[in-house]
Design brief:
By secondary structure, the protein is an alpha/beta fold. The protein is about 35% helix and about 20% strand. The protein has seven helices and nine strands. The strands form two sheets. It has a seven-stranded mixed beta sheet, with helices on both faces. A two-stranded parallel sheet has the order 4-9. Helix 6 links the parallel strand 5 and strand 6. The longest helix has 21 residues. It is globular and about 55 Å long. The protein starts with a helix and ends with a strand.
């Protein structure tokens, strides 16, 4: 680090402390160091926000790519009450692949990411290819609009970090319930920034999805773990999905 860059870093740190306080500064340093540690340990590059405009995506329901912190990802995946060898993991809005590579460090049966951006999928596949400490049986990324993805009968753990809103999110919830109705099994859903998700599942027609755990992670991310159980009464329609996994 040059003297100039060191000075800029110290200046930014002082400004951060003045605005947010010393405790928040320590939390921020820890957050960044943990993320840097796992990027280096796994040999991947998943950091940084990516605006929709730079990806050529024109969808009012979509949200820019921002990865969840590594600590939060490992923490919630360790809480899922399934035998790891039985898990087939699905990431909606997989972006550069951070959640995918974290899931792939577990001996899951299968890990799959769905994203509509060709550019982000290219980055995610490169990260999967070069990542270290991979234990999952199969890891792949599919280019597809989330609302058109058919949730296969083996998928039993679903992850999403606020990748989309509105009609797309509601259709995704319907697709999960359709899959559960066709192939009854317990499905767990991990959802970060859960407010929009919970507004949907609180409605009577989505009975059967219940929250079993909630937490908050730095800097300000809410998280819920949900179970789709046998009390689901969602009615299956005959709409076809355009891509499947």
């Amino acid at each position: 680090m040059t003297e100039k860059s060191l000075g800029a870093t110290l200046e930014n740190g002082v400004a951060f402390i003045r605005e947010y306080g010393f405790r928040r500064f320590v939390q921020e340093v820890h957050y960044r160091l943990v993320n840097q540690y796992w990027e280096r340990r796994l040999g991947v590059r998943t950091s940084g926000m990516v605006e929709l405009s730079s990806l050529g995506i024109h969808n009012e329901d979509s949200i820019e790519y921002t990865p969840m912190g590594y600590h939060a990802l490992f923490s919630v995946l360790r809480r899922i009450p399934l035998a790891v060898s039985d898990v087939s993991f699905l990431d909606y809005g997989s972006g550069k692949g951070r959640a995918i590579v974290v899931a792939a460090t577990f001996p899951f049966r299968r890990v799959v990411g769905v994203d509509m951006s060709e550019n982000l999928n290219r980055v995610a596949r490169a990260n999967i290819e070069r990542m270290r400490h991979k234990k999952a049986g199969a890891v792949e990324v599919l280019q597809c609009n989330a609302r058109e993805y058919e949730v296969g009968e083996e998928i039993n753990l679903i992850y999403c970090f606020n990748a989309f809103l509105g009609d797309t999110l509601e259709q995704v919830v319907k697709n999960i319930l359709v899959s559960h109705k066709r192939w009854p099994r317990t499905i767990y859903i991990v959802y970060f920034n859960k407010v929009h998700f919970e507004r949907i599942i609180d409605r009577p027609e989505y009975v059967g999805i219940r929250r079993i755990h909630q937490a908050h992670y730095y800097p300000n991310y809410s998280c819920g773990i949900y179970e789709v159980g046998s009390d689901s009464r969602f009615e299956v329609d005959d709409e076809d999905s355009l891509c499947s996994g």
